[in-house]
Amino acid sequence: MALFSHFYLVCAIFIFQTSPNPLRTKKSKTDISRTHQSIYPAEPEAAGRPDRMDRIELTDAYREIIKENIEYDCMVSRYGKERLDETMELMLEVVLSKRPYIRIAGDDFPREVVKGRFLKINSGHLEYVFDCIDKNTTKVGNIKAYLMAALYNAPATMDSYYRAEVNHDLYGC
Asked: How far apart are CA 41 and CA 26, in angstroms?
């Protein structure tokens, strides 16, 4: 629930800062007391971004959402803590990215599209990705890009992959 209240707070700050309001006046340089800026930022609200503590809380909230979605506690016994943590941190990095576009398999996709797809990944998708990686015998030059592409495409390709596997087992040579 804290994630939603944080979201609305950030939206309200953004709207307040970007809406033209004739009643708001700009401060002159003489209105600001001279203090060391690294200790006392002039106007933290004007930056339009949450402070460090809010960023940590947001990161923790998304980490918990991803853990829930992938059924972390059940999956860790099967795939190991290190492998699951590595994948979860990559997913978290993508979800928290501030870039307007994220490159997946050589194509740039809007951040919100990629974020939405990564937040839909569940334990079945993760098992599919791990299965595909385990079966891969070719050299992977950029494992991070490979894993990002596999995770991004998992919700769209998993059913077809398993259908093809079943057809091969039933009717193949």
From this structure: 17
